[in-house]
Request: fold
Amino acid sequence: MTTGDRATEPAVIWARPQRAGRGPRPAHSRDSIAAEAVRIADAEGIEAVSMRRVAAGIGAGTMSLYNYVPRKEDLYELMVDAVSAEYELTPPTGDWRADLLALARQTRQLMQRHPWLPRLLSPVHGFSPNALRYLEHSLACLAPLEASDGEKLELIAAINGTVATYVAGELALAERSRQLPWSEAEEQGVRAAWLGSRLATGEYPHLAAALASATPVTTAGPDLTAAFDRSMARLLTAWGS
Reply:
């Protein structure tokens, strides 16, 4: 039962019928509702998603939408599950590190396609149908790893948390670049020149040595994909060694 946008009792959306109440065959589906919410979020951001907007998008009345989705939190869960269906889960190769790196790359791409997704990640949404499919596949990939099931779940969570943090930084950098009145190359050039002048003072010998041995950054900016792969490889190497 619901009152406005507030459920009056706890319930799992997946345990509910597609549409509450009696009457004719449902005119809408959870898939169509989730697809419209995802479309709005992809185009305008998660802040633009509301029960009213989604209802208008599928040609339903706002109050009638509550018969399908009792609360906004349920709508968010439908959205997370809908985009989680985009994973391509191929059979494990037997190399658990390679398999998890491939999954992490997919997660990064998924979050880049749907920039609002990291904000909705929650243990509450972790057991939707497609999330269960993802977790089952991840654990199958981890079968060769000598670790407890609890440790394997912790590793999966650590990977997803790392990917979410990395992508959040990428998205923030991309948004900043779009707002600059000059090119990213000009920005990088000016900052590199200033940093070089500070390192030349000799006040930061450790930092100067570290940067001298680091992968060069071009005026186009760092290779974020290569940096992502290196970060994930370090995380995965720390397990099972």
Summary: The longest strand covers residues 2-3. Residues 1-6 have pLDDT under 50 and may be disordered. The chain has eleven helices and two strands.
